[in-house]
Amino acid sequence: MDNQDILQRIQALVQEEHDLREQPQDAGAGAEHQDHAARLKRVEEDLDQCWDLLRQRRAKADAGEDPADADARPISQVEGYRQ
Questions:
Q1: What are the tens digits of pLDDT across the range 28-49?
Q2: Cα separation, 26 vs 83, whole angstroms
Q3: Is residue 51 domain-resident?
Q4: CA 53 to CA 50: how far, in whole Å?
Q5: Contact predicate 17/24, CB 8 Å
Q6: DSSP for the chain, written as a single string
Q7: Where is this region: Disordered (predicted)?
Q8: Distance between CA 7 and CA 65 in Å, rounded?
């Protein structure tokens, strides 16, 4: 996967995130609401993971290393970063 592939994946995830946020959702604990919330959370996590991978690849390239050596970090690690 190269940077362009990652950017395309990011664009697709951003579009899905926007679509999910635009869908009217009734507040509550219904199964449909829970599925929607879970999917939105997963899309957000996937986005964070993609951005992290892209930053790793760019940092490796800037340091003269092979960007292909960058690996996607686990979501638990990416989500644990301090902002």
A1: 667 888 899 999 999 999 999 9
A2: 31
A3: yes
A4: 5
A5: no
A6: --HHHHHHHHHHHHHHHHHHHHS----SS-HHHHHHHHHHHHHHHHHHHHHHHHHHHHHHHHTTS-GGG--PPPHHHHTT---
A7: 18-37, 58-83
A8: 20
Separation CA 46–CA 62 (nearest Å): 24
Q: How far apart are CA 80 and CA 83, in angstroms?
A: 9
**Structural domain count of the chain:** 1
* 19: in domain: yes
In a domain, 28, yes or no: yes
Q: Would you place residue 60 in the very low, low, confident or very high pLDDT band (cuts 50, 70, 90)?
A: very high
Report if residue 83 sits inside a domain: no
